Amino acid sequence: MMEYTAFKDGAGKGKDGNTAQLWVSYMDHVWLVLNLMRAVKTNNYTLYTQCLCLMPDLFFSYGGFNDARYLT
User: Per residue in 24-57, pLDDT tens?
Assistant: First the structure.
């Protein structure tokens, strides 16, 4: 797991090129949305707030300017 984590961190920083960096970013965003859905389904308020604290950048980048503004 340590080797995988090191590889993912390196790819996320652009060590393996722009395409790898894009896909690592995409996977992180998908996991964030899946965790938000899990938090809602299991009524886990702590996980819900953690996800929302990480999501304003994602909302802003996809055109949800009001969502990003009200979450901060």
Answer: 999 999 999 999 999 999 999 999 999 988 888 8
**Helix (H) or strand (E) run with residue 49 in it:** helix 45-54
In a 13 Å sphere around the CA of 69, the CA atoms on its Cβ side amount to 4
Q: How far apart are CA 24 and CA 8, in angstroms?
A: 7
Look up residue 52 and give its two tokens. Answer: 């929302």
Distance between CA atoms of residues 65 and 39, nearest Å: 23
Output the average pLDDT for the chain. 88
Neighbours of 67 (CB within 10 A): 15
